Amino acid sequence: MNKELSIQDRISILQQKYPNGISDVSALSEEQKAWLQITIQAISNCKEFRLVSNLQRIHNRLIHSLEDIPDKELQEMASYIFNNIDEIKAYKKG
What is the pLDDT of residues 32-65, one digit of tens each? Predict the structure, then answer.
């Protein structure tokens, strides 16, 4: 059975992999960037966040992208997630 990870699980994995955040996305390998994009997309698509506009904007940009996300833009997305990580973890719908 394939259980979907919770928002807290996804954030925990992200924090374990990058405990100090990501200061320079351009230094990541293509594989690391792909993982980061998928992880940010999953965090921003969690049901609890459907009404949160910044996360929804990030999610939409990632799923509708027809080309690689530029490093600068991915850096902004990663920074937003890390800068708001405690708020995201604590967020409860309604």
Answer: 999 999 998 888 776 555 446 788 888 889 999 8
Residue with tokens 């919770």: 6
The amino acid occupying position 15 is Q
**Whether this model's pTM surpasses 0.70:** no
Residues in the chain: 94
Backbone CA torsion sign across 28, 62, 89, 10: negative
Rg (CA), the chain: 13
The answer to whether the CB of 23 falls within 8 A of the CB of 78 is no
Could you tell me the CA-to-CA distances from 50 to 43, 56, 70, 72 in Å, in that order? 10, 6, 25, 25
Residue 36, Cβ density class (10 Å: 0-12 exposed, 13-18 middle, ≥19 buried): buried
Q: How far apart are CA 65 and CA 19, in angstroms?
A: 27
